[in-house]
Amino acid sequence: MALRKPPLREEHAARGAKFTEFGGWDMPVEFDSIRAEHAAVREAVGAFDVSHMGEVVVAGPDATALMQRLTTNDVTRLDPGDSQYAAITDEDGVILDDTVVYRLPDATDADDAATGTTRYLFIPNAGHDVEMHDRWVTHRDRWDLDATVEDRTEDWAMFAVQGPDAADLVGDAADVLDADADGGGGTAVEDVRDLSKFQATYATVAGARCWVARTGYTGEDGFEVLAPWDDATEVWSAFVAGGDGEGAEGADEASGDTAATPCGLGARDTLRLEMGYLLSGQDFDPEDDPRNPYEAGIGFTVKLDTEFVGRDALARVNEDGPDERFVGIRLLERGVPRHGYDVVDTDGHVVGAVTSGTMSPTLGEPIALGYLPVEHADPGTRVGVVVRGSEKRAEVTTTPFIDG
Amino acid sequence: MSFDVPDDLRYLESHEWTQTGDSSVRVGISDFAQDELGDVVFVELPDEGDTIEKDAEFGVVESIKAVSDLYAPVSGEVVAVNEALFDEPELVNDDPYGDGWMLEVDPSDPDEFDDLLSADEYRDQIE
């Protein structure tokens, strides 16, 4: 099957990026050095092309009811321009995907919906957009709800601009669209610098109408910018200096010392791993490693006082307590923990497995994430990680691994 | 992009290099290989006194994104191990033919060098 390509595939290649398949997409994994890209995000600002993330728009009189019944969090708490992290679970409470749900401003004439319509945008993980779109359509029809569901994944590029300098860079590049203007709306801020975490607004970047959100998955301050697919080059160039001295023609190029370092999925992975954030398909997978939100450490996304698919199963888990917990593991010896490596107790019995692991670029130490039975899950518990047949001493720890 | 391929070394298709000679030849991985791997964060090497066998695995090099087995370009006894790599594995990236060397080996069969790729042949392979 042919890989799906982000709109800037050729620009990234011309810049010398290396690519990897992720969720059916051909994505840049590394531009120069994962270590250097990681450091840029922790210390300055980096920009990621995450156009492989899905975008599904749900609109209509019953949009709120449909979103509420298919996500674990409480969407009725969202005003236009707010967002929340949520899990999407099946009847057994197993996580199918994790997502961010944005409440868009009610539709104006600039949108493909009747003026005043309630609208949501949610972001399935790479390769899950079709499955989630179909899940929403199926349940809408089953429950006879009045809402449209559109997979807009290949209409919108998505860039994550992350790091302590992101606010200045994105703040200078983005002009917030007046809330009262056609096509405007969102949170009533005049500058994207004034957005709170998880708030978003429409703004123009390089002349394109974008959705600019104070969200991200690196543990740093930053923004995620949804840009029209056809304007992707200009918007990316507003954040990242031209490769090899050649910027995009006519674009409002990022200049001088405030430009973001282009970053690939390799650094995105090490950054989220240092924070202990879940990666869909790796730290949970409904087929290979089914997990519920409580054991995965995202019980805070579950609002049992709402009605959603999986609620009753999760109410039972909440009452009994999960059997296993998602923990951080720090190796005390040299070695690199990787997905699938066994975790053993002090008697050498296998008690779990590494779901994600790396050499932390920030700490210079090997770190891992995985599920352990609750009796082995307390911070400070000694365990071992089996690296190519050799047991490395390790210790359970809290996440994030780094100071926030 | 062009990669450094010193003329005086011999190469395996799996991107290891070796010096030639009767004793204490150095072994490492090529500039192309370190670039493909990206930031090297860990190396696992045999001990001094161990013997390695041509085309067999002798260790592992890991970058942030990949694990890669190392194959011996030559058979013989390991007479030195570059222990600096345990604390500074990035030397493999910075200087793959110099400070990033991995082993010194006393070759048991110098004829084996004839089976290896010349610099020109290796250049053809990676281009």
TrEMBL record, chain A:
It catalyses: N(6)-[(R)-S(8)-aminomethyldihydrolipoyl]-L-lysyl-[protein] + (6S)-5,6,7,8-tetrahydrofolate = N(6)-[(R)-dihydrolipoyl]-L-lysyl-[protein] + (6R)-5,10-methylene-5,6,7,8-tetrahydrofolate + NH4(+). Its EC number is 2.1.2.10. Signal peptide: none annotated. The keyword Protein transport does not apply. Residues 9-305 form the GCVT N-terminal domain. It is an enzyme of class 2 (transferase). Pfam families: GCV_T, GCV_T_C. GO terms for molecular function: aminomethyltransferase activity; transaminase activity. Residues 246-255 have a biased composition (Acidic residues). PANTHER family: AMINOMETHYLTRANSFERASE, AMINOMETHYLTRANSFERASE, MITOCHONDRIAL. The glycine cleavage system is composed of four proteins: P, T, L and H. This is Probable aminomethyltransferase. It comes from Halobium salinum.
Automatic annotation (TrEMBL), chain B:
Binds 1 lipoyl cofactor covalently. InterPro entries: 2-oxoA_DH_lipoyl-BS, Biotin_lipoyl, GCV_H, GCV_H/Fam206, GCV_H_sub, Single_hybrid_motif. It holds the Pfam family GCV_H. Signal peptide: none annotated. Coiled coil: none annotated. Its cofactor is (R)-lipoate. The modification N6-lipoyllysine is found at K65. Residues 105-127 are annotated as: Disordered. It comes from the Archaea. Keywords: Lipoyl. Residues 106-118 have a biased composition (Acidic residues). Residues 24-106 form the Lipoyl-binding domain. One of its GO terms (biological process) is glycine decarboxylation via glycine cleavage system. The glycine cleavage system is composed of four proteins: P, T, L and H. Belongs to the GcvH family. The glycine cleavage system catalyzes the degradation of glycine. The H protein shuttles the methylamine group of glycine from the P protein to the T protein. This is Probable glycine cleavage system H protein. It comes from Halobium salinum.
